[in-house]
Structures are given as structure tokens and as C-alpha cells.
Sequence to fold (324 residues):
Amino acid sequence: MTTSNGDSGTSLAVDLNGVAFPTPVLAASGCFGSGREMAAALDVRRIGGIVTKSVTLGPTKGLPTPRMVEVDAGMLNAIGLQNPGVEEFLAKDGPFIASLGAPVILSIAGKSVQEFAQVAIQTRDMPGVVAIEANISCPNVERRNQVFACHPEQAIEVIATMTRLTTLPVFAKLTADVTNIVEIADACVHAGAHGVTLINTLLGMAIDVESFRPRLAAVTGGLSGPAIRPVAIRCVYQVAQALPGVPIIGVGGISTARDAIEFLLAGAWAVQVGTANFANPDATIQIADGIGQFLAARGLSSPADLTGKVERSERVAEPAYRSG
Ligand SMILES: Cc1cc2nc3c(=O)[nH]c(=O)nc-3n(C[C@H](O)[C@H](O)[C@H](O)COP(=O)(O)O)c2cc1C
Fold:
């Protein structure tokens, strides 16, 4: 695997306070399986890393169809965390992940704190897994289906429990559907999170004006793709400013190297690519190559040279202006 750029002395490797990736471009959860299905289409060892589809305790059937629709500048999905459950995941994907040769982040989701805990225990010694991503952007059935990541005290409960149960670093994956994402990120870090992944999909809805019906069977779903990139960039920027030194993985609407570089400049230490994989399974590799060329052309030696380097002429009072 080549992670350096010819003779230029540029290396694409990144180190997120002890969690190392050969390139800063990972495949996002839910958009790459565990890599097993993609292995036929591309050399998965050239990817910076793979975040698995979120794994839950028991098998989850998912939501009725249609559950993916295209919208302007993105897509809406309401898959409903469909996955075979942790036991089948371990049996089927475990051996593949162990032999993959690319770092894997295991994404865990749950309907209760206990479910997160149980999956963390059952996956504790999985070879090939370098970190856990706690997908806390899902409903807590024990608290009237409130989304964990929308309430600091519920986010804390999950993260504190998981960090007690695993020796792996835990990244909290947050939603931007909150008033103050810094408050949630700060709560997660204080509860023991190694870093944060920003952002999950934004809650959206589309209606077919001919039939008058919602286009998704589940009515609402998660918006992803280029449409959400400015929101994700804003979240990364705000959290990076408030919590310097905390590793941030940026995700949301990345399909080119320039998109990824925008995230690095905002404060991301690495990025993930989701929706773009569906149109171009090679996206993560091409984006990493493009970052390498960008660095080499500027005489920079590492993606870390770009992290948080956005320049502002003067400090704008927070909260930032929304319009007008
Ligand atoms: C079809 C689909 C399935 C997804 N499944 C998951 C999931 O299981 N767990 C999770 O944390 N995020 C999931 N996501 C969210 C992505 O990981 C990512 O955060 C989001 O799509 C924004 O990135 P993008 O604009 O590059 O797609 C899913 C996204 C899509 C489009």
C-alpha cells in the first residue's frame, strides 16, 4: 500500500491521538457494508479505513420500502438500521475484518443503553477493529424514542457505559439536529469519548405532489449528500474551535478531494465518505489521491498540515449569524 506521494515527501497517514489510518479518507457507516461486498469492485486495502454498518444486538429487519429516494443534491434514506445482529455479524464479517488489512471502525447502535453495552461486550476482542463508533443518533426506546445524541445526559450514559466496557477508543457519532452541537460533543468527551464523528444524516422529508404521499414509506428519513455539506462543515468548525485537541472525523456530502480538504481546514483530522460510494465505489481512494496531489503541489507533508487551518479575517461573535 502506498501512502506517500512519490518523491515529494508527502505522507497521507494520519494519527488521531493514537488511532492511525494510512489515509485520512474512510468509508462511512452504512454506505460500504463491512467492505466484504465491495471487495470485488475495488482493492479495499487502499482505503484509509472502513466504518461498518451499525450493528445492533438482535437482527433488525429495517423499515418498509421505499426507503431510499433521490432528492436535489442528495438522498433521503430510512433504512432503519437493518443488520443481522451481533452474533451473525461476528460469524460472517468477523473473519473478513480480521483478514482485511485496512483499519476497521466498528459502528454500534442500540435502542437502549443496555443494548449498546451488550454489543460492546460481545465485540470486545474483534481482530482488525481499531476503534468503536457509537451511533447515538438513534432513538432511545426507554425514553419515549428521544434520540440519544439530542440530549447530553442520554449521550453521556451511552458513552460512559461503552468506554467502561471496551479498551478501544470510542468515537461518538453525532447528529446536527440539535441547537448546540458543541454542548453534546463536550458531554461525550467528558464521558470518555476519544473523539467525535460529525455528522450523521439530517432529518428530512419529501412529498410526491402527484400522489400527495410521502416519498419514503417511513415518511421521514435521513438526508445525506452534497446538500448537507455546509451544515457538516459548520459543525466540525464549531466543535474544533471549542474542543482543540479532540480528534474529529468529518462526514457529510464529500464526493471530491476539495470537499474533503474543506473539512480538514474546518478542523477535521480525517473524513468519511458515505453517499458518494453508491455512484462511485472508488470514491474514497480517488479522494485520498487528490488530497495527496493537493498537499504535494503546496509543499505540505501531511493532511494534518491542513487541519483547522481555516483563516478568518476577524473573530465573529458566537453564535454566528444565520442570515441577514
Ligand atoms: C443508506 C445509508 C445508510 C446509513 N447507515 C448508517 C448507519 O448504519 N450508521 C450510521 O452511523 N450512519 C449511517 N449513515 C450515515 C452516513 O454514515 C453519513 O453519516 C451520512 O450519510 C452523511 O455522509 P454522506 O453525505 O457522505 O452520505 C447512513 C447513510 C446512508 C446514506
Notes: Residues 4-68+78-204+224-305 form a domain with the TIM Barrel fold (CATH 3.20.20.70). The radius of gyration is 19 Å. The chain is about 30% helix and 20% strand.
